[in-house]
Design goal:
The complex is a heterodimer of chains A (114) and B (112). Chain A is mainly β. In chain A, 0% of the residues lie in helices and 55% in strands. In chain B, the strands form two sheets. In chain B, strands 2, 4, 5, 9, 10 and 11 form a six-stranded mixed beta sheet that branches. In chain B, strands 1-3-8-7-6 form a five-stranded antiparallel beta sheet, with no helix packed on it. Classes of the chains: A mainly beta (114), B mainly beta (112).
Chain lengths: 114, 112
């Protein structure tokens, strides 16, 4: 199946821990994103990579560090987790420069910090 | 700065009604507009994408229109069904790398 896949789907962890979320797409897209959906269900972009290069870095605490080993993979590492980091994190991908292509989203990772 | 507004925030209707969901955006210099559906606890499913050169797109009972000059899009759902119950999100790209800016969504409940 062609898709954007994220792991894990659920993540429950204690404050202060470090955790990673992984994302992979097999759509041949060249741009990948991390979005955060907060408790009010509002979706906001965090980061974007184009061909492994960081191109969008919104105002995000530097405890969040994305890494893109290749254009099909984008990971998100979070250090020193805080209660306020609890949210659903979505990975997405798209073709840059293609107005007829939209975004494809993964199914999300629900992070709960206790 | 691009801002996206969706009206209404919530809608509850009996099965069979035809529905109109509204989306407005502040910067009309967009390449396309995308409508998504999100079921509770699930990811986003793309419903329709309208390119800036197009006026509308149709998929089954869904029809989306785009009026760039007025900064508006509507999603029309014909003959609504309980399975249409979900949150509908409108999004437009902003900036050189097309980061998507989302509206807050319309939460739709269709009851039998």
């Amino acid at each position: 199946d062609t898709a954007v896949s994220q792991t894990p789907k659920y993540l429950v962890t204690q404050m202060g821990n470090d955790k990673s979320i992984k994302c992979e797409q097999n759509l041949g897209h060249d741009t990948m994103y991390w979005y955060k959906q907060d408790s009010k269900k509002f979706l906001k972009i965090m980061f974007s990579y184009n061909n492994k290069e960081l191109i969008i870095n919104e105002t995000v605490p530097n405890r969040f560090s994305p890494k893109s080993p290749d254009k099909a993979h984008l990971n998100l590492h979070i250090n020193s987790l805080e209660l306020g980091d609890s949210a659903v994190y979505f990975c997405a991908s798209s073709h840059s420069g293609r107005n007829d292509y939209g975004y494809t989203f993964g199914s999300g990772t629900r992070l709960t910090v206790v | 700065k691009q801002e996206v507004t969706q009206i209404p925030a919530a809608l509850s209707v009996p099965e069979g009604e035809n529905l109109v969901l509204n989306c407005s955006f502040t910067d009309s210099a967009i390449y396309n507009l995308q409508w998504f559906r999100q079921d509770p606890g699930k990811g986003l499913t793309s419903l329709l994408l309208i390119q800036s050169s197009q006026r509308e797109q149709t998929s089954g009972r869904l029809n989306a229109s785009l009026d760039k000059s007025s900064g508006r899009s509507t999603l029309y759902i014909a003959a609504s069904q309980p399975g249409d119950s979900a949150t509908y999100l409108c999004a437009v790209p902003s900036g050189g790398y097309n980061k998507l800016i989302f509206g807050a969504g319309t939460r739709l409940a269709v009851h039998p």
